[in-house]
Amino acid sequence: MPDDEPSGRPAAPGHPDDGADGEERFVEDLVVRGEAVPEGTEPLPPGATHEVVAERDGVPTQVRRRRFSAHG
Description:
This protein is 19% helix and 24% strand. The chain is an alpha+beta fold.
């Protein structure tokens, strides 16, 4: 069962253990929520926690955490 978590449960869709698809979904969700902005954006807008450091065909593929959310 390669898609199982160490606990034996199946990995949830979009979970980081899903491999590349999970990573792409994570980055996409950050961008959609406004939590990821283009690299070099200064100062970070309210709510932004990550910056996009790599894109493929105009689609963000990699982010870097810049700060943690101040609200929760």
